[in-house]
């Protein structure tokens, strides 16, 4: 058993890397891993000013399996209250990932299933190698993918979600890319690290406050009708941004042909 089920490192530049660290059980969610994840995500929320981007990846050949077989015997004897507490903790992980102000990138280098696949769907950007495989296999084992469902439907759409969540059919990285679950597919680790580094460089070139505000506004406007109320909201968001220090500095730096402070 690993000493810590989830590891986190923060670089001097402000890149946080969260690593699922229970490869012996295929990094499947269990109460300890979930608790560690929630702790690390809370650390990021509390110290958000020093972190500009987040990567979530996994140790070993599997991103996250369907079940931790050491945990399953205990799960069978859970009380209703314990089951609810367990579900709330997992739901909290997914919502915390979604609500982080920094861009969150999932790196998938092998199979992903169960709650780990929900974690992937909750991230802003997903980069996968050709070795990645995906499956929503809950219904085959008598479960429903309730906790991941909102994030999955948002990522791939209701029609594709019906197809894959009801059939439990596996699919590869190319299909995940076609569906919109994966944003970038790479051949191998070398290409992966190069694409990842390039993407992080672009994130670090952007103003942190503008990134956070953009993420928050996307969540606010998604699914809303384009009516007078929504237009008032986006005008207000635009005005708040223009009145802030980052926009003023960005204009000044552009006119003076220099980098703004957040790129230095």
Automatic annotation (TrEMBL):
Tell me one GO biological process term. Answer: isoprenoid catabolic process
Q: InterPro entries from the entry?
A: ClpP/crotonase-like_dom_sf, Enoyl-CoA_hydra/iso, Enoyl-CoA_hydra_C, Enoyl-CoA_Hydratase/Isomerase
> Which Pfam families does its entry note?
ECH_1
**What's its EC?**
4.2.1.17
Keywords in UniProt for this one? Isomerase, Lyase
Keyword hit for Isomerase? yes
| Molecular functions per Gene Ontology | enoyl-CoA hydratase activity; isomerase activity
User: Does the record bear Isomerase in its keywords?
Assistant: yes
UniProt lists the family membership as follows:
Belongs to the enoyl-CoA hydratase/isomerase family.
Q: Which PANTHER family match?
A: ENOYL-COA HYDRATASE, POLYKETIDE BIOSYNTHESIS ENOYL-COA HYDRATASE PKSH-RELATED
Q: What is this protein called?
A: Enoyl-CoA hydratase/isomerase family protein
Annotated organism of origin:
Pyruvatibacter mobilis
């Amino acid at each position: 058993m690993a000493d810590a089920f989830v590891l986190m490192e923060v670089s001097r530049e402000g890149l946080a890397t969260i690593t699922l660290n229970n490869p012996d059980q295929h990094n499947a969610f269990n109460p300890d891993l979930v608790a560690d994840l929630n702790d690390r995500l809370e650390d990021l929320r509390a110290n958000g000013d020093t972190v500009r981007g987040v990567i979530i990846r996994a140790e070993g050949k599997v991103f996250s399996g369907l079940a931790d077989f050491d945990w399953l015997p205990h799960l069978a004897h859970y009380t209703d209250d314990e089951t609810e507490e367990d579900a709330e903790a997992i739901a909290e992980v997914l919502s915390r990932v979604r609500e982080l102000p920094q861009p969150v990138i999932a790196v998938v280098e092998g199979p992903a299933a169960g709650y780990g696949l929900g974690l992937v769907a909750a991230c802003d950007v997903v980069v996968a190698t050709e070795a990645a495989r995906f499956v929503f296999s809950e219904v085959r084992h008598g479960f429903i993918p309730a906790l991941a469902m909102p994030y999955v439907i948002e990522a791939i759409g209701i029609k594709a979600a019906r197809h894959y969540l009801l059939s439990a059919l596996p699919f590869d990285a190319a299909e995940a890319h076609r569906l919109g679950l994966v944003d970038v597919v790479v051949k191998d680790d070398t290409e992966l690290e190069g694409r990842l580094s390039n993407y992080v460089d672009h994130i670090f070139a952007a103003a942190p406050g503008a990134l956070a505000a953009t993420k928050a506004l996307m969540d606010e406007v998604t699914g809303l009708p384009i009516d007078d109320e929504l237009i008032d909201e986006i005008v207000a968001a635009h005005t708040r941004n223009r009145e802030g220090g980052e926009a003023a500095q960005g204009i000044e730096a552009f006119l003076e042909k220099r980098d703004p402070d957040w790129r230095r």
